[in-house]
């Protein structure tokens, strides 16, 4: 006799549940950016600003984290502050591989892009705004260090808005892997693929769309065609906030060299690099990071609103024909 599966440990915050039940736009947000991406208290200030930006643009934010043995979809102000104050070494950085274990162990966990997509789908959220996705790391041909974010984009039907992939990565190989996996990579408002702090990576984006409604429609057509997976919307950082590639890359290369010298690997690489680049740019990288996340939140709200309008139109058409 097999043991029964445990109940789904999903706790949706009341305002998020109300919005979902009413068919209103909801935008998922990750929590790794809070626990591993920025120092206290900037992390809490940023998280609050991003949530407010989404509200100001007509959608409901849903920050996702693992707390008290539950998948928390939407955090109360108290939980948000508690997470932001928790020392980094006491928070698991969760992807697909370790999400179930964190829940079983009752650990506090921050969700990466991959884990956030999984949790968002469980809650019925189709749009997720983040900073930048993970991808193929430099030297992956020998280290095999490739982010699980790429596989997740190929299997989980969530539209992810990011300022491209993080500039610390091997961007050409990242785009190649996304193409192999069948993930649509859509640049918003330009032909170039952005590189996180910079608007132009020097690479062209496979697709371009300038209308949030078209982006939502493309995702819905994927559903109609029975195609698995989501889509990546590469939204360039605002011009006034960017650090041009020629300025940021020396800091990136210096940080990468230090990481190699110190033997830093796996999940520790990205937090180390972001911290070092912050120091090398005298804080400019953090300021740019905040602005690009806010920009992605605005576009996420617009795309989520377009999803809601499309669902409402389908419902009305069904009612009229029923």
UniProtKB/TrEMBL annotation:
Cofactor binding summary note: Binds 1 Mn(2+) ion per subunit.
The enzyme's E.C. designation: 4.2.1.70
Active site positions, chain numbering: 30 (proton donor), 166 (nucleophile)
Recorded superkingdom: Bacteria
A molecular function (GO) term: hydrolase activity, acting on glycosyl bonds
Reaction catalyzed: D-ribose 5-phosphate + uracil = psi-UMP + H2O
Chain residues that bind Mn(2+): 145
Essential cofactor(s): Mn(2+)
Keywords: Glycosidase, Hydrolase, Lyase, Manganese, Metal-binding
Record function comment: Catalyzes the reversible cleavage of pseudouridine 5'-phosphate (PsiMP) to ribose 5-phosphate and uracil. Functions biologically in the cleavage direction, as part of a pseudouridine degradation pathway.
Protein name (Swiss-Prot/TrEMBL): Pseudouridine-5'-phosphate glycosidase
Protein source organism: Paracoccus pacificus
Gene expressing this chain: psuG
């Amino acid at each position: 006799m097999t043991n029964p599966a445990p109940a789904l440990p999903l706790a949706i915050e009341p305002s998020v549940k109300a919005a979902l039940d009413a068919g209103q736009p909801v935008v998922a947000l990750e929590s790794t950016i809070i626990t591993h991406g920025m120092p206290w208290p900037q992390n809490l200030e940023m998280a609050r600003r991003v949530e407010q930006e989404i509200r100001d643009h007509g959608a409901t934010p849903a920050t996702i984290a693992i707390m008290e043995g539950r998948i928390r979809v939407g955090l109360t102000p108290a939980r948000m502050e508690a997470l932001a104050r928790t020392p980094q070494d006491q928070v698991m950085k969760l992807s697909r591989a370790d999400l179930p274990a964190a829940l079983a162990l009752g650990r506090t966990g921050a969700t990466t892009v991959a884990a956030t997509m999984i949790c968002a789908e469980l809650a019925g959220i189709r749009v997720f705004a983040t900073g930048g996705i993970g991808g193929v790391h430099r030297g992956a041909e020998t280290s095999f260090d490739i982010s699980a974010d790429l596989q997740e984009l190929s299997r989980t039907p969530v539209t992810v808005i990011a300022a491209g992939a993080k500039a610390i990565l091997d961007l050409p190989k990242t785009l190649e892997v996304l193409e192999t996996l069948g993930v649509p990579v859509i640049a918003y408002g330009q032909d170039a693929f952005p590189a996180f702090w910079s608007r132009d990576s020097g690479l062209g984006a496979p697709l371009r769309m300038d209308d949030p409604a078209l982006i939502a429609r493309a995702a819905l057509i994927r559903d109609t065609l029975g195609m698995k997976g989501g889509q990546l919307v590469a939204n360039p950082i605002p011009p006034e906030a960017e650090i041009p590639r020629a300025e940021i890359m020396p800091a990136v290369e210096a940080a990468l060299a230090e990481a190699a010298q110190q033997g830093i690997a796996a999940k520790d690489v990205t937090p180390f690099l972001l911290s070092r680049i912050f120091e090398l740019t005298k804080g400019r990288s953090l300021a740019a990071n905040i602005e690009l996340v806010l920009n992605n939140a605005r576009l996420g709200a617009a795309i989520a609103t377009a999803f809601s309008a499309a669902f409402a139109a389908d419902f009305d058409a069904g009612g009229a024909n029923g």
